[in-house]
Amino acid sequence: xxxxxxxxxxxxxxxxxxxxxxxxxxxxxxxxxxxxxxxxxxxxxxxxxxxxxxxxxxxxxxxxxxxxxxxxxxxxxxxxxxxxxxxxxxxxxxxxxxxxxxxxxxxxxxxxxxxxxxxxxxxxxxxxxxxxxxxxxxxxxxxxxxxxxxxxxxxxxxxxxxxxxxxxxxxxxxxxx
Length: 177
Description:
By secondary structure, the chain is an all-alpha fold. It has helices at 3-10, 20-45, 52-62, 68-88, 92-110, 115-135, 153-176.
């Protein structure tokens, strides 16, 4: 068997190639959305070894987000809600904006620790939140084929603008409150 014959055989299209990208989007959405939702549940409810609402509020106050209860609850809700929306592939441009706006603040809060062990996670989640409004959630989602399904360049840019505005607005409120 030659290398050429192996390559020819593996490059032969199959009927499943049409859903390969949708399977990839499903994996990205479920993993990133599920992990982000779990982080939100840790903050809000103390699940999976998380701090719970009061300890989370105290941590937010130490990071300069005062009142800590308001900002800590907001962070938990956006992580839980945005993560679940991504996981389900529901209202994907809004979900992406929620995630990216939240991650702008995560990167700000962890910047001093450097990339690795600091803001790396915020960048990873933020990029996924920024990318999915452009690509859409794929066929295996609650948005697929629905009248409200939106994706593409305009929706991606709109999600980026909404995320940046809300992320920066939160930072401004942090600095003035």
